[in-house]
Amino acid sequence: MTNLKITQSTAREYTTSTNSKDVNASQKTNSKKTYVPLVQNENQSKAEKSTSKAPTRPKPEGIKNIKVEMGDNLFYLATKYHVSMDDVLAANPKLDPDKLKEGQTLKMPYVSDKNWDSYISAKEAYEAKELAEFEANEKLMQTKKLQKRINLAKAKIEEANELKYNKDYNFNVDPKTGNIIITLKEAKELGDIRRDFKLPAGHLKEMNPEITKKYKPGKLFNLDEMVRKNDWDEAEAGKDDKFIVKPEVFKPYKGFLGELFD
After folding, report:
1. Domain range holding 86?
2. Contact yes or no for 15/35 (Cβ under 8 A)
């Protein structure tokens, strides 16, 4: 099986000269040499590498007469000889593909096994390259996306520290996810954590499902119904407990006046 080789264009030097009986004189006065800049050539090579085209399906090399055998159909025959059904119909304009008969003679276009194998090898190599480039690009995009989240998390932590929340909390960034890790310096109710950073209701449980096993909801008096009900905001977390929070929803509370004049 042979592999297809793709050649790349290279910069070429060319010379233009005027017609003259005196060759030496013309070389001195009229001959000009033009060069394609080396940098341009390198850029062209890079462009060619990044925009390589998929190998084209080989065209039929010729036509041979064949006899239709029992069980043959147009799709099978086209596949056997490495051509399309349109190629077969073009070579047999009066053929009814639904009425093939055993012993019927067909003009069959064909591509040799050697050329077909070369095409398949080149096609598989091209697809493998395309897949590798796609996966590399996806990995790069994911890396950029993660770095963006990490930068956001660091900015939010800096904001929280400026508001003196580092008195009650330690903040870190998970380098694998970009999430913020909050560590308590003293016991706090979950509701206080949620309010300090304006977290959406249920966010702590969503990001930290172990909460439901580790803590018990407290009782909160409902003025509307005049009863005390279980409420997770009233659950108390202990010193050194950790919580994962998305940086996108982490908004350190600046206090009423701070929010009013922000």
Report:
1. 62-111
2. no
